[in-house]
Amino acid sequence: MPKVVYDYNKCDGNGSCAEVCPVAILEKSGNGKWCKPMDDKVENTEAIKKFHENVENKDGPVNVVISNDMPECISCRACEAACPKDAIKFEE
Fold first, then answer.
1. Residue 32: how many CA atoms within 13 Å on its side-chain side?
2. Residues 6 or more apart from 48 whose CB is under 8 A from it?
3. CATH code at 18?
4. How many domains does the chain have?
5. Pairwise CA distance, residues 30 & 82, whole Å
6. What is this structure's pTM?
7. How far is CA 23 from CA 32, 40, 56, in A?
8. In which domain, by residue range, is 26 found?
9. How far apart are CA 33 and CA 28, in angstroms?
10. Which pLDDT score is estimated for 25?
11. Residues 6+ apart with CB under 8 A from 38
12. Alpha-carbon span 50 to 41, nearest angstrom
């Protein structure tokens, strides 16, 4: 299963990753400051919890890296290529 890894020290929330995802499993956070996988598309709940507790309400870069287990991801890596801040990586 693909792991989509977000580095929130780099993410600026521009949303390009969500725009290019062909299976529509990425989004901007509710406050528009971050990009993230949709909560219901992440299998490991600890990743969801880590985002909501440590990243979501922060105003600027956060020294947090989150690895998301994403069974619906097709590993096309379009999000990785689209991110202008190099904030997305894959672990397989």
1. 0
2. 39, 42
3. 3.30.70.20
4. 1
5. 21
6. 0.93
7. 21, 13, 23
8. 3-91
9. 7
10. 97
11. 25, 26, 27
12. 15
Side chain identity at 4, as an amino acid letter? V
Residue type for position 55: V
Q: Token match 């993230």: residue?
A: 36
Q: Read out DSSP for 25-65?
A: -EEE-TTSS-EEE-GGG-S-HHHHHHHHHHTTT-SS--S-E
Beta bridge partners of 36: 27
37-83 tens-digit pLDDT = 999 999 999 999 999 999 999 988 999 999 999 999 999 999 999 99
**Rounded-to-integer distance, Cα 24 and Cα 38, Å:** 9
Size of the chain, expressed as the number of residues it contains: 92
Q: What letter does residue 82 receive in the DSSP assignment?
A: H
